[in-house]
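In this section we walk through a basic example: taking a raw amino acid sequence and producing a predicted 3D structure, encoded as discrete structure tokens. The instruction is simple. Fold the sequence below.
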Amino acid sequence: MKVLGISGSPRPGGNTDILIRTGLEVLQAEGLETEFLSLADHPVKPCTACGGCAKAKEIRCVQEDPAFEGMVERFIEADGVLIGSPVYFGSATPQTMSLLDRIGYVSRCNGNFLRRKVGAAVVVARRAGQNFTFAQLNYFFLISEMIVPGSTYWNIAVGREKGQVNDDTEGIDTIKNLAGNMAWLMKKLEQ
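The resulting token sequence is shown next.
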């Protein structure tokens, strides 16, 4: 079983990266294969609603976008997706939503390949906006027919400057518990 961990932050090595990597460490300790992907290194273009993914002979987005290359295959290969975003003016980053919008359309037009995969969201902000962003990411999982595990609290943490999220022990513990629950759920679904 494999989990794709995605940091939707444009800032490499920041708080979102730390949270996703924390979750992936727990998942690895549970025996799952993991892959970390930072959207800071992959500035994905937004969906243009061209409909090309519905007409293509193979499962793909027809936009020419080097940052999106291999994304469809990563999502198809993964049994679970752990995605994180910092809060930007009360919502997920444009990078995060560009990726999810495009993957969502390709999935919908190609047999809903996201259906019954496990999806979990992680959100970080300086002060507020986590709940709306957390809901925004969970709405994507739910409309994609994915299965969403919970934790001891909402999967959020507080921090602005790089590394500050490590001071939020409750937030870190929540992410660790989420990852443990994600591993448990994925193992149950495999049985």
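Looking at the output, two observations stand out. Helices lie at 15-29, 52-55, 71-77, 94-108, 130-143, 169-190. Strands lie at 2-7, 33-38, 80-86, 118-125, 156-158. In the next section we compare this with other chains.
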